[in-house]
Amino acid sequence: MRPFELTAPTTVADAVGTSGTFLAGGTTLVDLMKLNVLTPQEVLDINDLPLRGIDTSDGLRFGALERMSDIAAHPGVYPVISRALLASASQQLRNMASIGGNLLQRTRCGYFRDIAMPCNKRVPGSGCPAITGANRNHAILGTSESCVATHASDVAVALVALDARVRLTGADGDRTVALADFYRLPGATPEVENDLRPGELITEVVVPRLDWAHRSTYVKVRDRASYEFALCSAAVALDVRDSRVVDARVAVGGVATVPWRLTAVEDALRGGPATVEAFEQAASVAAEGATPLSANGFKVSLLKRTVVRALIEGAA
């Protein structure tokens, strides 16, 4: 780890508009600093900022510094969000990690985290060795010739499914962005991962009220039962009445470069019966546009099966 200057602003106004790197729970930033993947000269510890609080009175609102474990345990939080949080990391990390930091965590691609290897996210223009190298855990959706790394967050998948928004605060004031639009596909500039402007800070996460989101779930498929990133995951919320699907929200993770909303699956579900056969038919379009690599072609069928499993659980 390289030397850096540490400051601790106590107001949002003092924090935003600076060139420093924000530190909340530190569970991602400190790891990357130890590896010299990130080498900020100035780090701002923002834990004293007034960015806490959980409000479930009309939809959901989370202060960006709320810890993942506290949100997961809070009454009134939709099951898909709680389950996504509880499937993340370990209990110790969930007790430290903030919701804002989780949404901004960097990819777990091994090439990104190894400074001896080229990586377009870390050093633009250096190349993407994962395209022809070890790519079992990489993306099949939303990829480009510059990057095939998956997005790491579990809860971001659930929040994208529920049309969540993030409030961003910078030197020029506040703005609100849909989380689905906040994340950027890699294209030719994979180093630009989101719509966060220099000096801006996520200050709040807002989930619109969705009364039927109590019927929701998050399914995560991984190589081991805990402390592991997703090979594939699915966040599902279903409005089922008289054994028919009135409305649906479906998003997936572990298979795409950003949290991936499956609008075609949602359209196929609406108006249809809440049966396994109908779920299988809807999930058949889940992998449309996929571009598998040499070692991750299995994710095409895994994606479809994971969506079906989540739909069955969500409809139960």
UniProtKB/TrEMBL annotation:
<dbReference type="InterPro" id="IPR016169">
    <property type="entry name" value="FAD-bd_PCMH_sub2"/>
</dbReference>
<dbReference type="Pfam" id="PF03450">
    <property type="entry name" value="CO_deh_flav_C"/>
</dbReference>
<protein>
    <submittedName>
        <fullName>Xanthine dehydrogenase YagS FAD-binding subunit</fullName>
    </submittedName>
</protein>
<keyword id="KW-0560">Oxidoreductase</keyword>
<dbReference type="GO" id="GO:0016491">
    <property type="term" value="F:oxidoreductase activity"/>
</dbReference>
<dbReference type="GO" id="GO:0071949">
    <property type="term" value="F:FAD binding"/>
</dbReference>
<dbReference type="InterPro" id="IPR002346">
    <property type="entry name" value="Mopterin_DH_FAD-bd"/>
</dbReference>
<dbReference type="Pfam" id="PF00941">
    <property type="entry name" value="FAD_binding_5"/>
</dbReference>
<dbReference type="InterPro" id="IPR036318">
    <property type="entry name" value="FAD-bd_PCMH-like_sf"/>
</dbReference>
<dbReference type="InterPro" id="IPR005107">
    <property type="entry name" value="CO_DH_flav_C"/>
</dbReference>
<dbReference type="InterPro" id="IPR036683">
    <property type="entry name" value="CO_DH_flav_C_dom_sf"/>
</dbReference>
<dbReference type="InterPro" id="IPR051312">
    <property type="entry name" value="Diverse_Substr_Oxidored"/>
</dbReference>
<dbReference type="InterPro" id="IPR016166">
    <property type="entry name" value="FAD-bd_PCMH"/>
</dbReference>
<feature type="domain" description="FAD-binding PCMH-type">
    <location>
        <begin position="1"/>
        <end position="212"/>
    </location>
</feature>
<dbReference type="InterPro" id="IPR016167">
    <property type="entry name" value="FAD-bd_PCMH_sub1"/>
</dbReference>
